[in-house]
Each structure stands twice: as structure tokens, then as C-alpha cells.
Amino acid sequence: MKLIDETVVKLAEAFQLPERIFKIDDLPWVPFDKNHTCYFKPLRFDLSTGTWIYLFKIKSNQVLGKHRHTGGSVIGYNIQGKWRYEGRDWAATPGTFIYEPPGDIHTLTTEVEEVLTLFILGGALQYFDDNDEITGQDDIFTVLQKYKDFCAQNNIQENHELIY
Fold it and tell me: What pTM was estimated for this model as a whole?
């Protein structure tokens, strides 16, 4: 039995991903939207699962248009500021944990303080107009491209440790 245990351990070690350690302060704030009302700091792009992790910063007194998360849940942890979804009876303040099931449609609003939230997302983020028609979409690939484009335009070295 010991031989099987050693073989399993060696096999697991052969396929295990290495640790990824980096300083968040060394990563850029990348504009998420064209209006520069929100920014993201990428932390991980998991291309095998479609999961993307980032710090999300939203300027004060903003309304992020109606959107829906598809294909995966959203997990968030609010670090700074206060935000809510229109029509909901809760607000995310520092220390709030958020879980959103796939398919939920909402409009995010911020208050007087800039917001900083850690998000873990899977699937796509679809945007809607006032007639509930889809006007655009982001997913791991479009967000990764935003990061790559921003780095190229600003002569910033991409951190390849974020992509695995």
C-alpha cells in the first residue's frame, strides 16, 4: 500500500501548479469601461475554468448599467466604500461578503466614497440597455485583452504569473 501512496503523491506533484506570489501594488489599475468610472486590478485569469479574479474600484456616485452574470457565480468581498443594487434592501459596506447566483440581473450604484471590492467571477458579464436588449459582454478573454492592451499602450510589462 505504501508504494501506491508514494506513486499518487509523485503524480500529484508532477501536475501541481506552482505557487503564484506577487505584490498587488505592482499591478496597474486598468480602466474597465470607456468612461473611466471603474477600474480593475487583475489578480488571476484561470483559462481552464474561465474564472477571473480582480480588485474592482468604482468612483463615487456612479451607476453601473444593468448587467447579468452568466455561466458562473460571483463572489465578492467589499473592502472600501458602500454600494448596492437598485431595488434591493441591502448595501455592501466594508467587510460584506457577497454571493450572486448566475443569471441575476442588477444595476450597481455607489455612494459618496470610492468603492473597492474583491471579485471572483466565472462565465460572462452581459450588459443591457433600457429596453433589456443585450448591448455588450465581457468574459475572461475580453478582460484579459483589456489588461494586455493597457500594458502595451502604457509600456508596462505584463505579469504572466496572472494567467494560468
Answer: 0.87
